[in-house]
Amino acid sequence: MSKRHPIVAVTGSSGAGTSTVKRAFERIFRREGITPAVIEGDSYHRFDRVAMKAKMAEAVAAGQNFSHFGPEANIFDKLQTTFAEYGESGAGERRYYLHSPEESAEHNTRLGTNLDPGEFTPWEPLPANTDLLFYEGLHGGVKGQGYNVASLVDLLIGVVPITNLEWIQKIHRDNSERGYSAETIVDTILRRMPDYINHVCPQFSQTHINFQRVPTVDTSNPFICRDIPTPDESFVIIHFRRGVREMFNVDFTYLLKMIDGSFMSSPTSLVVGGGKMGFAMELILTPIIHRMIEEKQN
C-alpha cells in the first residue's frame, strides 16, 4: 500500500456488476479532476481466446477443473508486480484484452497492429503523472500461494449480488451481448463453481467495502427468469469491514440523512434502495478518494 501512489481496485465475479461501480468512479474522477491509470482484469488472463478454448477442451477431456476464475488461467504474479511497481514508483505496464471488433479496430489504429478480437495488445508503459491506479475485474483482492494482491490495494471494493441475481445478470448479458445460449451459459457457471468458491469468494473477506444487491422479487430459479430485477426491485447492503469506518472516517449519521429510506442493519452495514446505489457510492467514495489525493500531496 502506498500513500504516494494509491491503488483502488473493484473486484467481483462475471455478471456481478463491477462495470456499474467503475462508472461511479469515472464520474468521481471526472468531477474531481483526478487522472487515473486504468487497468482491466481481463488483461491478466494467461491465454487468448483461441488458446483458452484449446486449454478448456484439454481440461474437460482430462476431467479437470479449469476456468477464468482460477490461478491456472491467470497471471496473478504479473498483477501483483503491476500493483507493487505502481505503489512504489507510479509506473508499470498494461495491456488490453480485445473483446470485440470495435475494440480491435480502436487499438489497431492506435498501435498500428492487426490484432483480432480475443487477442491481447502488447504490454506498454502506464501513462506518466497519474494520480492513482484503478483496477476493475475478477481478481483485485486475490490471495493465494505465492501472491497476495489484496495487500497492495489502498481501497478495495467488492461487488457481490446474491448468487441467484448474479447468475441472472450473467445469463442475460452473455445471451444479449455475446449470443451464447442459455445452456452454454449454465455449463460455464457450473464449470467455474469450484474456482468461484476457492478464488473469487475469499476476496470479499479482504475488501474494505462490499456492495451487495439483494432483489425483493422472486429469483428462486434464476435459470428461467425472463428479466433482471430492476434497481427499484432490490436493496443494496453496503458492508464496511470492521475498522474501515474509522480508517476512512465514514459518517453513517450523515449518510442516513442524505439517502432517503436508508437504514443500518448492523453496526457495520448500511442498507439503501437499489435505485440509490450510484448516489450512495458517490457519497461514500468521493471523500475517501479526496483523502487519498490529499495524503498523496502532503
Give your account of this protein's structure.
GO terms for molecular function: ATP binding; phosphoribulokinase activity. Belongs to the phosphoribulokinase family. The chain is α/β, with parallel strands linked by helices and 298 residues long. It has one domain: Rossmann fold (3-Layer(aba) Sandwich), CATH 3.40.50. It is 40% helix and 17% strand. The chain is built from nine helices and twelve strands. The strands form three sheets. Strands 2-5-1-8-9-10-12-11 form an eight-stranded mixed sheet, sandwiched between helices. It has a two-stranded antiparallel ribbon with strand order 3-4. A hairpin with a 2-residue loop joins strand 11 and strand 12. The relative contact order is 0.17. The model has no long low-confidence stretch (mean pLDDT 89).
What tags apply to this protein structure?
298 residues; alpha/beta; Rossmann fold; 8-stranded mixed β-sheet; 40% helix; PRK
Summarize the structure.
One of its GO terms (biological process) is carbohydrate metabolic process. The chain is α/β, with parallel strands linked by helices and 298 residues long.
Blueprint (SSEs and pairs):
Elements: E1 7-11, H1 18-32, E2 36-40, H2 49-61, H3 76-89, E3 93-94, H4 101-111, E4 124-125, E5 132-137, E6 143-144, E7 147-148, E8 155-159, H5 163-178, H6 182-200, E9 209-215, E10 234-240, H7 244-247, H8 252-258, E11 263-266, E12 269-273, H9 277-297
Parallel strand pairs: 1-5, 1-8, 2-5, 8-9
Antiparallel strand pairs: 3-4, 6-7, 9-10, 10-12, 11-12
Catalytic activity: D-ribulose 5-phosphate + ATP = D-ribulose 1,5-bisphosphate + ADP + H(+)
GO biological process, one term: carbohydrate metabolic process
Protein name: Phosphoribulokinase
